[in-house]
Design goal:
The chain is built from 5 helices and 4 strands. The chain is of the alpha/beta class and 101 residues long. The protein has a two-stranded parallel ribbon. A two-stranded parallel sheet has the order 3-4. The chain is globular, with a radius of gyration of 14 Å.
Length: 101
């Protein structure tokens, strides 16, 4: 399983915080809107991520707290989970077999 990030952060802001938080090392790819000059929910940023990681939307689970971003991702063929709480996300990932129970 691969973990990738898609964020609306600027390149400068991300560079300032990336080294402060070790969890960023878990991501194989992090696509920044500041780098590609697109922001979610523009479908083109989702396509840019898919091209970069060499996957189809149907192979991916997209997690976000924004309903607008979830709607766009779903329309492109992503499986989606709308983040509401850590517990809810953990349960949703376990139900999909992506985390152990």
């Amino acid at each position: 399983m691969e973990l990738h990030g898609l964020t609306n952060w600027s390149s400068e802001k991300f560079a300032a915080v990336r080294t402060k938080y070790s969890f960023f090392q878990l991501f194989a790819t992090i696509l920044l809107s500041g780098d590609v000059k697109l922001i979610k929910p523009d479908p083109r940023i989702f396509q840019a991520l898919l091209e970069r990681i060499g996957r189809s939307a149907g192979e991916c689970v997209f997690i976000d707290d924004s309903e607008e971003n979830i709607t766009t991702a779903r329309s492109l063929g992503f499986e989606t989970i709308r983040f509401e709480s850590p517990e809810q996300l953990r349960s949703a990932l376990q139900q999909r077999g992506l985390l152990p129970r």
